[in-house]
Amino acid sequence: MMGRALAAFCVLATTACGQGGQHRSTPGSADNEVCRLLSDTTTLFGANASVVGYRGIDQMGPSCEFASADGARNGEIVIFTSQSLGAGVTPAAKMQEVLQKWDAQTETPLAPVAGLGEGAQMATDLPGYQTQIAFIKNNTLVLIQARTSDAATSGGAELARRLAMTAAASMP
Length: 172
What we know:
By secondary structure, the chain is an alpha+beta fold. It contains 5 helices and 7 strands; from the N terminus they run H-H-E-E-E-H-H-E-E-E-E-H. Strand 4 (111-112) and strand 5 form a beta hairpin. The protein is globular and about 40 Å long.
């Protein structure tokens, strides 16, 4: 299920995954730098949550997928750095590209999110009932994706916001 969420996330992130959207590597351990941004998965995803880290896809830096044991809550953190984006593409330029695509895919206006980093924006009501947040911190573009069907959570927006706040607070 998370693989499909990653594929949808890549489509929404606009060319973030390149033409083929193929992983350059197989799933790694949960012990990559992005997975470590969420040191306690039980707070957001409950006991026995699944955590899968990836080294990168095309222009993306490392990423990490999270899923509750029952599959009701899913999230992902993807980072883009100047190094992963390559020459001529800045994290700020990539963020503008992503935000334009998100804006075109939802009738709900993008909304600013305070306390995360530069230019933080949230997109809701995206295909697949996803909520996504983008922000820049320390010249790193951070994309957050969340989806939930858990009645105890008030929706993907709350989960995305909590995931983003935790990630931002853990970034150097």
